[in-house]
Amino acid sequence: MKVVSVGSGMMGANVVHGAMSMSNLDSRPSDYYSLSRAEMMNYVPSDARRLIEFGCGYGNFSELATRERQLECWGIEVEPEAAKCAAHKIHKVLCGDAAELLQELPDSYFDCAVFNDILEHMADPYTLLLKVKAKLSPAGVVVASIPNVRYWRNLKRLVFRGEWTYTDKGILDRSHLRFFTKKSIISMFDEAGYSIIRIDGIKPTRSRSFRVANLIALGSLSDAKFCQFACLARPLDSEKKSDG
C-alpha cells in the first residue's frame, strides 16, 4: 500500500491507494461523485462518533456528517480524482476496491458504515456486508440506500413496453452489477447476518397510473411506489451481546 499526501486540506487527510479490481464505479459520470444525500443523515445514529463511507465520491456526505455531527469520517472511493477531492474534506480516504481495502481498516472501530447507492455496483455485496461487521464497534450499524428495480416507472416500461434499456444513471445505470427489490434487500441483509431496524421507501412516484394500478392490484404494488429504499441494519451478533 502507498500513502499519498494530497496537501493540507480541511482535515490534513491522506489518500491511501489500493487495488481497483472488483467494482466498476470508475466508469460512472462525473456528477455521481458530488451527491451529498443529506436525507440519509436521518439514518445515522445520533450517538455515532466514527463513520466509514463506502463509495464516498467527493466526500460531500461525510463532510456533512463531520460538520453537523462532528463525526470522525473515513471514506473508500475507487475513482482517484474523487478520492483526492474527498481527502480535503474528511479525516482519511482509501482509494481502491472496497473488498480489498477492508483489511486496511481497524477492527471494531466504526459506529456506522454507510453505503449510499453503492452495493448495486459491487460484484459481491453479500460478502462485503458480511466482512464489514468486523470493522463495526459493538453498537455499530450499517446505513444503505439501494435502488428499487420494481420502481413503477421502470416496471411499467418492462411490462408494457418490453424495455430494459441501460442508462448513464438511475436504476438501470449501466454500471450496476446487481438489482434489488425490497424483498431481496431484506434477504441480502438476512443472509449476511443482519437485523433490519428500519427500511423506508424514498423518492416516491407521483404517477396517477401507479395509484390506479396499485388499486387494481389490491396494494400488491405498494413497493413499486419508491425509487429507492433506505435501510438501517445491525449485525445479529451485536444484538445477542446486548441481550446478554
How do you describe this structure in short?
The protein is of the alpha/beta class and 244 residues long. It has helices at residues 60-69, 80-87, 98-101, 125-132, 152-161, 182-191, 208-216, 236-243; strands spanning 2-5, 14-17, 50-54, 72-77, 92-95, 110-116, 136-147, 194-204, 226-235.
Task: Explain this structure.
There is one protein chain. This protein is of the alpha/beta class and 244 residues long. Helix content is 27%, strand content 26%. Strands 1-2-5-4-3-6-7-9-8 form a nine-stranded mixed beta sheet, with helices on both faces. Helix 2 links the parallel strand 4 and strand 5. The N and C termini lie far apart (40 Å). The N terminus is likely disordered.
CA-atom Rg in angstroms: 18 Å
Helix/strand-derived class?
alpha/beta
Number of helices: 8
- Global outline: globular
N-end to C-end Cα span: 40 Å
Beta content: 25-35%
Indicate the mean pLDDT: 87
Largest sheet: 9 strands, mixed
Percent helix: 25-40%
Q: Taking strands numbered 1, 2, ... along the chain, how are they ordered across the largest sheet?
A: 1-2-5-4-3-6-7-9-8
Would you list the SSEs in sequence order as H and E?
A: EEEHEHEHEHEHHEHEH
Q: Uncertain spans, ≥5 residues at pLDDT below 50?
A: 1-13, 19-26
Number of strands: 9
